[in-house]
Amino acid sequence: MEHEFQHELGEMNHELGEMEHDLDKMVDELLPEFGEMERELQHELGEMKHELGEMEHEFQHELGEMEHD
């Protein structure tokens, strides 16, 4: 009886090991995609910050002109 239990535990442990391996493989396959998405988002964020900076500069310029009027 104990031998059967040990055998079943061994099989379950083996199956868990295979599942862990499959998950690791999936994560490894997805990581480059996430890295690419992160780079794209960082690029877009940089562009948005740049545009916001330009808008702020224009606003400050217009505000300065209004103060002179």
Structural class computed from helices and strand pairing: mainly alpha
* Overall pLDDT metric: 93
State the helical fraction.
Answer: over 70%
Tally of DSSP β-strands: 0
* CA radius of gyration: 29 Å
The topology string of helices and strands comes to: H
Indicate the overall shape. rod-shaped
Q: Main sheet? A: none
- Termini separation: 96 Å
The number of distinct helices, counting runs of at least 4 residues, comes to 1
Strand proportion: under 5%
Low-confidence stretches: none
How would you explain this protein's 3D organization?
- Residues 9-58 form a coiled coil.
- Keywords: Coiled coil.
- The protein is 97% helix and 0% strand.
- The chain is mostly helical.
- It starts with a helix and ends with a helix.
Write a brief caption for the model.
The protein has 69 residues and is mainly alpha-helical. It is 97% helix and 0% strand.
Tell me the layout of helices and strands.
Elements: H1 2-68
Short descriptors:
69 residues; rod-shaped; coiled coil
